Automatic annotation (TrEMBL):
Pfam families: OB_ChsH2_C, zf-ChsH2
Organism: Desulfosalsimonas propionicica
Lineage top rank: taxon: Bacteria
Gene3D superfamilies membership: 6.10.30.10
Alphabetical list of InterPro entries matching this protein: ChsH2_C, ChsH2_Znr, NA-bd_OB-fold, Thioester_dehydratase-like
Domain ChsH2 rubredoxin-like zinc ribbon: 12-41
Descriptive protein name: Nucleic acid-binding protein
Sequence ranges assigned to domain ChsH2 C-terminal OB-fold in this UniProt record: 50-112
Length: 135
């Protein structure tokens, strides 16, 4: 069994501001980030699809003490976004001063761009991370 969409392919697309996922011809669900099987019905015969990158914030947190390797980024906002196509993905929100983040963020519409970071001591070179801005 092999991955239809590997993390390497997903990451490479993200570096070009493209969000890729997998759609399920059996039940219609979209899976993102990529997994081996459909997040809804566990089917394996998935098709690679490009997602809009648009969605709404379902929850968030502000990181003030960053993990090792990301200290210089703190403080920053991490959001969980429900994409228009259904899946929920995590990313950073860059449109707002982290000291101003409050519960009014929940439900706000956002769209994806990507940010490329130099990578930390644990990563294999530059890493793209989903980054959101207000739509
Ligand atoms: Zn399915």
């Amino acid at each position: 069994m092999e991955y239809k969409l590997s993390f390497r392919q997903y990451h490479k697309a993200l570096m070009k501001n493209k969000l890729m996922g997998l759609s399920c011809p059996r039940c219609g669900a979209v899976t993102c980030p990529p997994q081996m099987s459909c997040r809804s019905c566990t089917a394996y015969d998935l098709e690679i699809t490009e997602l809009s990158g648009r969605g709404k914030i379902t929850t968030f947190t502000t990181i003030t003490v960053a993990p090792e390797g990301r200290e210089s980024e703190a403080p920053y906002i991490v959001v969980l976004v429900e994409l228009e196509e259904g899946p929920w993905i995590m990313g950073n929100l860059y449109d707002l001063d982290p000291s101003r983040a409050d519960l009014s963020l929940i439900g706000k519409q956002v769209e994806l761009g990507c940010r490329v970071f130099p990578g930390d001591r644990y990563s294999d070179g530059p890493m793209a991370r989903p980054a959101f801005r207000f739509a």
